[in-house]
């Protein structure tokens, strides 16, 4: 029997995006989150006395701004070397050979597989053969796995591959492959990387994305970590997900249906924040709050969204404490149907409201709208897009939500606003 860790997408020193826009954000506390998560990975390897560690690409987030990133990695590899644990890794699109202009001498016991051709690294004492190839350039669009060598007879064969597999939303289509193609190699385990959400593509053999070890923005929500893989003497494979992250992103959905006033909305948010089911996490969190439901309070929320967003922030801080930080509030409430109100709207505004309503019900027109907005999205900074601060233009539901916001705003800007909360 032997054990190994399968990790990927470390993204050392990648910034956690979406945090520095607000004074209350815990930026300093989590600035080194990817380093702390990587330290957890190394400590786990030592505590579990694994025989080796695999990293399936994107160790780095790109070219180092200085040598501190490389020196930190070296220090952690020395810990593993001193524990007698070898590390085998490949470069992914973020740390492709042509992107890295800085380097440090390799640490004994750390093997980076070649970017020029598929390579096999054998651990003969364990009868393990690890096959893989690093990215030579950032945009590798061919199926690298097709060129991997045949399985070594009498060995436990592992494929180490950075790939989009058959494609996943939010990830570039790099080194695409199929489950059938991977199975054809007759390996015993495929250690994949590139997709940041953990996923088991197949169990015979195991074909696994472990996900990244630390979420970097709201689109990488939930626990993050690696796989502890145990291979028994009969070559049965057991997977155990190990959580490594030190800061977590979450989405909370609060239903405020029927709420009459803004204060009632705040009460429901406070109750949700105090609920033990939402406060069982033992690490700091950034929460994106979705407030939805059909309610009379919508008129107040829509009339002063900035005011209510800040009141919601204050309410959550009081109810949930300092370990929960509100990353963003998405107000998705609507008014109960009021045909008299709609009938009272006249002129160009009425025509625009009707057009928006019709547009939201036509999938083809929504797709055309997304296509028209795409050139604007491409001009935005990458950290804004990757941080989930831009609407998904390929999602009809997301576009409908945006149109509904516009429609409701148009309607309620025409209403006189009273003082009721």
Brief account:
With 421 residues, the protein is α/β, with parallel strands linked by helices. It has helices at 27-30, 33-47, 68-82, 179-183, 262-274, 298-303, 305-320, 339-344, 347-360, 363-378, 382-386, 396-412, and strands at 2-7, 52-56, 87-90, 110-112, 119-123, 128-132, 156-162, 189-193, 199-203, 206-209, 225-231, 237-243, 248-255, 285-294, 324-334.
What does this structure look like?
It contains twelve helices and 15 strands. The chain has 421 residues and is α/β, with parallel strands linked by helices. It folds into three domains: 2-243, Metallo-dependent phosphatases (Purple Acid Phosphatase, chain A, domain 2, 4-Layer Sandwich), CATH 3.60.21; 248-258 and 265-335, no CATH class; 337-421, no CATH class. The strands form three sheets. A six-stranded mixed beta sheet has the order 4-3-2-1-11-12. Strands 5-6-7-8-10-9 form a six-stranded mixed beta sheet, with no helix packed on it. The protein has a three-stranded parallel beta sheet with strand order 13-14-15. Strand 5 and strand 6 (128-132) form a beta hairpin. Helix 5 runs parallel beside helix 7 (305-320) and helix 9 (347-360) packs antiparallel against helix 12 (396-412). It is elongated and about 80 Å long. The relative contact order is 0.10. The mean pLDDT is 86.
Describe the SSE topology.
Elements: E1 2-7, H1 27-30, H2 33-47, E2 52-56, H3 68-82, E3 87-90, E4 110-112, E5 119-123, E6 128-132, E7 156-162, H4 179-183, E8 189-193, E9 199-203, E10 206-209, E11 225-231, E12 237-243, E13 248-255, H5 262-274, E14 285-294, H6 298-303, H7 305-320, E15 324-334, H8 339-344, H9 347-360, H10 363-378, H11 382-386, H12 396-412
Parallel strand pairs: 1-2, 2-3, 3-4, 6-7, 7-8, 8-10, 13-14, 14-15
Antiparallel strand pairs: 1-11, 5-6, 9-10, 11-12
């Amino acid at each position: 029997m032997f054990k190994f860790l399968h990790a990927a997408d470390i993204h050392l020193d990648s910034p956690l995006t979406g945090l520095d826009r607000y004074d209350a954000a815990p930026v300093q506390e989590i600035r080194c989150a990817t380093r702390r998560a990587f330290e957890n990975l190394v400590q786990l390897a030592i505590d579990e006395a694994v025989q080796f560690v695999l990293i399936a690409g994107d160790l780095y987030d790109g070219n180092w701004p200085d040598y501190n990133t490389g020196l930190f990695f070296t220090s952690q590899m020395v810990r593993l070397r001193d524990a007698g644990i070898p590390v085998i890794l490949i470069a992914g699109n973020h740390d492709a050979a042509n992107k890295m202009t800085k380097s440090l001498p390799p640490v004994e016991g750390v093997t980076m597989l070649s970017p020029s051709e598929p390579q096999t690294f054998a651990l003969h004492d364990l009868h393990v053969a690890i096959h893989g190839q690093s990215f030579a350039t950032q945009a590798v669009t061919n199926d690298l796995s097709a060129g991997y060598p045949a399985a070594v007879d009498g060995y436990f064969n592992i494929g180490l591959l950075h790939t989009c597999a058959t494609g996943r939303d939010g990830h570039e289509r790099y080194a695409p492959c199929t489950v059938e193609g991977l199975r054809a190699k007759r390996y015993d385990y495929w250690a994949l990387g590139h997709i940041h959400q953990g996923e088991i593509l197949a169990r015979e053999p195991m074909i696994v994305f472990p996900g990244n070890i630390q979420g970097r923005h709201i689109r990488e929500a939930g626990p993050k970590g690696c796989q502890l893989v145990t291979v028994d003497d009969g070559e049965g494979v057991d997977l155990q997900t190990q959580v490594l992250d030190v800061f977590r992103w979450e989405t909370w959905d609060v239903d405020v249906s029927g709420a009459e006033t803004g204060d009632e909305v705040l009460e429901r948010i406070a109750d949700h924040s105090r609920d033990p089911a939402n406060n069982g996490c033992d690490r700091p969190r950034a929460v994106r709050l979705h407030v939805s439901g059909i309610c009379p309070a919508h008129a107040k929320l829509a009339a002063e969204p900035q005011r209510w967003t800040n009141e919601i922030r204050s309410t959550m801080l009081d109810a949930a404490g300092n370990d929960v930080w509100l990353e963003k509030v998405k107000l998705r409430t609507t008014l109960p149907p009021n045909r008299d109100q709609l009938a009272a709207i006249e002129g160009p505004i009425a025509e625009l409201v009707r057009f928006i309503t019709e547009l939201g019900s036509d999938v083809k027109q929504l797709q055309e709208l997304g296509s028209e907005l795409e050139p604007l999205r491409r001009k935005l900074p990458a950290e804004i897009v990757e941080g989930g601060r831009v609407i998904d233009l390929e999602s009809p539901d997301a576009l409908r939500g945006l149109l509904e916001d516009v429609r409701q705003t148009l309607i309620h800007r025409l209403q006189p606003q009273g003082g009721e909360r």
